[in-house]
Write a structure and sequence with these properties.
With 379 residues, the protein is α/β, with parallel strands linked by helices. It contains twelve helices and 14 strands. It has two domains: 204 residues, Rossmann fold (3-Layer(aba) Sandwich), CATH 3.40.50; 144 residues, Response regulator (Rossmann fold), CATH 3.40.50. Pfam families: Peripla_BP_6.
C-alpha cells in the first residue's frame, strides 16, 4: 500500500540528490478562521514530502514544498499564487484550503498553465472542468446526496437550511437547492449567516416556528459550532446535520456538549478505527492517522488527508509523466483507481474531482467523538 511505503523511512536518511529539486507550491490557511483546515494540510504536505525524500525522492529528485499562508483571504491567495508561479517557479500547486480562495486563483493558474490541486470542496471548483484545476476534497454535491439519502431513509421530507455567506456556503446552498426535488425534499426555510456572526438565534427562532423536520447547516468553523450551541440553548429538538466542512475534532471542541447527536458526511479517515476490515481504504487510513500522530501528537484528520492525496497524486503523475507542468497535468487527468485518504480517485478529461458519493460515510457525534452511522446503510 502507498501509505505503508511512505511511513517506512530509510534508516540512513535521504541520499544526496544530484539534480535540482522539483518545486511544488502550497497555499494553505495556516492562520486565521480557517486554520483548522490549513494547518493540518500544511503539516501533512510537509510530512509526506519529507518521507518521499527520505525514501529517495521522485525519479531520483528531491521534492521541495514552498508553502505560504493565505490566512483564508482571497486577495492574499491571489498575491501568493503569483509569487509561487513567477518568483518560485513551481511546477504545480496544492491548495488553497477554502473554496473562496481557490476560486480567486483559478484564473491565475489557468493563464500560467500550472496544475493546481485544490484542497477545498466547492463543486464549482471543477464544474465545469478547468483544464489546469483538480481537487481532492469531496464535492459538496456528493455530501448533499449523502444527507438527502439518509433523510429519505428516515422519512424526513421538510428541512430548513442555514448556510454561511462565503464561497463554501454559497456552493453548498446551490447544491442543496438543486438536489432537493430529486430526493423529494422540500426546503421550507432558506436562511444564511455571516462567517463572523456569533449568534444565530434569530435564524433558528424562525426555523423553530416553521414546519421543518430537520436542520441542515452548511459552513466551516466556527459558525456551525455557534449554530449547534444556539440550537441547544433554544431547546430545539430537531435533528441537526452539518456539512463535511466541520469533519474534524475541532468542531466537537468548539461545540462542546451541543455537538452530541449531530450527523454529517465525512471522509472515512476520522472513523478509520471502526471501519470494517474489508474496507479497501482502511489500511492506508490507519497508517496515515498514526503517522500524523507520531509527528504532530494529534490524529490525522479529513483535512490533512486532502493534502496527503494531493502530494501523492502529484508524485504519481511525475513518476508516470514527467516533471513539467504540462506533463504533470496530462498524467493527473489519466489517474485511475488511486486509493487515497478521501476516497478512490478516477480523474478524466470530463471529471477533475474524481470521486463518487461512496467517498463519504455518515458520522455522528457520540460522547465527544465520531461514530459511524451504520443504520444509514453504511457497513
Amino acid at each position: 500500500m502507498l501509505a505503508a511505503v511512505l511511513v517506512t523511512i530509510l534508516a540512513g536518511g535521504a541520499e544526496a540528490f544530484a539534480a535540482e529539486p522539483i518545486k511544488i507550491g502550497g497555499l494553505f490557511a495556516i492562520t486565521g478562521p480557517a486554520s483548522f483546515l490549513g494547518e493540518p494540510e500544511r503539516n501533512t504536505a510537509q510530512m509526506v514530502v519529507d518521507e518521499i525524500n527520505a525514501a529517495g525522492g521522485v525519479k531520483g529528485r528531491k521534492l521541495q514544498l514552498i508553502a505560504y499562508d493565505t490566512q483564508g483571504d482571497s486577495t492574499k491567495a491571489k498575491q501568493l499564487v503569483n509569487k509561487l508561479i513567477k518568483n518560485d517557479k513551481v511546477v504545480a500547486i496544492i491548495g488553497p484550503s477554502t473554496t473562496g480562495d481557490t476560486m480567486a486563483v483559478i484564473g491565475d493558474v489557468e493563464r500560467a498553465e500550472i496544475p493546481l490541486i485544490s484542497c477545498a470542496a466547492g463543486s464549482k471548483i471543477t464544474e465545469p472542468v478547468k483544464k489546469w484545476v483538480f481537487k481532492t476534497a469531496q464535492n459538496d454535491g456528493l455530501a448533499v446526496a449523502k444527507i438527502f439519502d439518509y433523510l429519505n431513509r428516515k422519512k424526513i421530507a421538510k428541512v430548513a437550511i442555514l448556510t454561511v455567506s462565503d464561497g463554501f456556503g454559497s456552493s453548498g446552498r446551490e447544491q442543496l437547492k438543486a438536489n432537493a426535488a430529486k430526493f423529494g425534499i422540500q426546503i421550507v426555510v432558506d436562511d444564511t449567516y455571516n462567517p463572523k456572526d456569533t449568534d444565530m438565534t434569530p435564524q433558528l427562532t424562525k426555523i423553530r416556528s416553521s414546519q421543518a423536520q430537520a436542520i441542515i447547516c452548511w459552513g466551516t468553523n466556527p459558525g456551525p459550532a455557534v449554530v449547534a450551541r444556539n440550537v441547544k440553548q433554544l431547546g430545539i429538538k430537531l435533528p441537526v446535520f452539518m456539512s463535511h466542512g466541520v469533519s474534524s475534532k475541532k468542531f466537537i471542541e468548539l461545540a462542546g456538549d451541543a455537538a452530541e447527536g449531530i450527523i454529517l458526511p465525512s471522509g472515512r479517515v476520522i472513523v478509520s478505527d471502526v471501519l470494517p476490515h474489508q474496507d479497501k481504504q482502511k489500511k492506508s487510513l490507519m497508517a496515515f492517522v498514526k503517522d500524523y500522530q507520531k509527528h504532530y501528537k494529534v490524529e490525522g484528520d479529513h483535512f490533512g488527508g486532502h493534502a496527503w492525496d494531493a502530494i501523492m497524486l502529484l508524485k504519481g503523475a511525475i513518476e508516470r509523466g514527467g516533471d513539467t507542468p504540462a506533463a504533470i497535468r496530462d498524467a493527473l487527468e489519466k489517474t485511475t483507481n488511486f486509493p487515497g485518504i478521501g476516497g478512490v480517485f478516477n480523474f478524466s478529461r470530463t471529471d477533475h474531482a474524481g470521486l463518487t458519493k461512496d467517498a463519504f460515510v455518515l458520522v455522528e457525534v457520540k460522547k465527544r467523538d465520531w461514530s459511524l452511522v451504520r443504520q444509514a446503510g453504511i457497513e
